[in-house]
Amino acid sequence: GPLDALRVDPKDFKLELENNQVRVLRLKLGPRQSTPIHEHAVNHVVVYLTDANVRQTPAEAGEHKAADFVWNGPSKHKLENLNDKPLEAIVVELKN
Predict the structure, then answer these.
(1) What is the pLDDT of residue 2?
(2) Residue 63 region by backbone torsions, left for phi larger than 0, else alpha for psi between -120 and 50, else beta
(3) 46-85 pLDDT, tens per residue?
(4) From CA 71, how far away is CA 35, in angstroms rounded?
(5) Which residues, 6+ apart, have CB-to-CB distance to 37 below 8 Å?
(6) Coil/strand/helix, residue 13
(7) CB–CB of 2/29 below 8 Å?
(8) Strands of the chain, DSSP E
(9) Rounded (5°) CA angle 43-28-48
(10) 3-state secondary structure at position 42
(11) How distant, in Å, are the alpha carbons of 37, 76, 77 from that of 3?
């Protein structure tokens, strides 16, 4: 859709893998950087590769350790890296 993460933020989101089951995105955000509002139209799992202190708007703030997994349903949000260090995560969107 028009708010697809790869379409609205190709600088921070990179396509790693896509097939008929999943789409895997890598997100890299610099210190105190944020994404524009974007949408994940399907259920998805986020795997944090670095420690993270993030705020999703609209939603809530949260801290995650490297290797944490987070399950999310379809969502539309802006993501802010609240740390003074880069953030890296993998987003696995489930197509079925």
Answers:
(1) 93
(2) beta
(3) 999 999 999 988 877 789 999 999 999 999 999 999 999 9
(4) 19
(5) 3, 8, 76, 77, 78
(6) strand
(7) no
(8) 13-18, 22-29, 38-40, 44-48, 52-57, 61-64, 69-72, 75-81, 87-94
(9) 55
(10) coil
(11) 7, 8, 10
